[in-house]
Amino acid sequence: SSRRARRSPSALDPYGRTRKGGRTTGPAPFAFGSDRFSEPLMSIKPSSGAEIRSLTSSLASDDEVVRETAVARLAIFGPRAVDRVIAFYASADRNTRRTVLRVLEAIADPRALPLARQALSEGGDVAVSATGTLRSLLDSPVTDTATEAFDALVEAAMDKNAERRVRRRLVLGRPKLASDHGPHSPFATGSSFTLLIVMARAR
Q1: Rg for the chain (alpha carbons), in Å?
Q2: What is the pLDDT of residue 195?
Q3: How many Cβ atoms are within 10 Å of 140's Cβ, its own excluded?
Q4: Distance between CA 25 and CA 176 in Å, rounded?
Q5: Residue 179 to residue 193: CA distance in whole angstroms
Q6: Angular region, 185: left φ>0, alpha ψ -120 to 50, beta rest
Q7: d(CA 40, CA 126)
Q8: Which of 5, 19, 35, 148 has the fewest C-beta atoms under 10 angstroms from its C-beta?
């Protein structure tokens, strides 16, 4: 009817949800850092896919501003960028691989686990960067992912053949209390104390 109010652009929030009487209705936005991996991933629009491809290529840029901008933007894309970033790793040089691992650390998606474990075995600065990616997965809502990331860190800390700087990175990385971790993390049950002892012995 003519009395029915038309929906105006101002009635929508940035996520396309409707505002009614000061309240917002509709599905909540997906947040890659909120442990809500049970929800379907957002589909990638052609325009977004093209931007992700471009940003991923920029991870290899010699221009620090271009490179760091790409890291930040890909982190915002979150899970939608993970497959592309992981696929890019194989053709990247060692410096670029470190940058790729930083992106995956920021996103903390379970799909990064196999690559992070591989990178840990590559040694040098790449392995150091891989420890950060693995640490980010300790709070994964996917229990197997959190456990495997934990096991990989313990194994590296105990490996006497591992480079000292890699093991020191495990020791000097900021430890968290069990209460700081999500309920899915192996640290949540007090395992952090065990890992800290292992890492201290590895120094």
Answers
A1: 20
A2: 52
A3: 23
A4: 36
A5: 12
A6: beta
A7: 31
A8: 5
Strand 18-20 relative to strand 23-25, pairing: antiparallel
Least confident range of 51-60, 79-88, 180-189:
180-189
Going from the C-alpha of 20 to that of each of 2, 8, 9, 17, the distances in angstroms are: 19, 12, 13, 10
Q: How does pLDDT run across 134-180, given as a tens digit for each residue?
A: 999 998 888 899 999 999 988 888 887 778 778 777 765 544 434 44
C-alpha to C-alpha distance for 145 and 162, rounded to whole angstroms: 23
Share of the chain above pLDDT 90, in %: 46
**What single-letter DSSP state applies at residue 41?**
P
Quick one: tokens of 110? 């379970």
Q: Which residues of 57-67 are buried (b: 16+ CB within 10 A; e: fewer)?
A: ebbbeeeeeeb
Ranges assigned E (strand) in the chain: 18-20, 23-25
pLDDT average, residue stretch 55-62: 97
> CB-based burial of residue 83 (10 Å sphere; 0-12 exposed, 13-18 middle, 19+ buried)?
middle
Q: Which two tokens stand for residue 194?
A: 């065990």
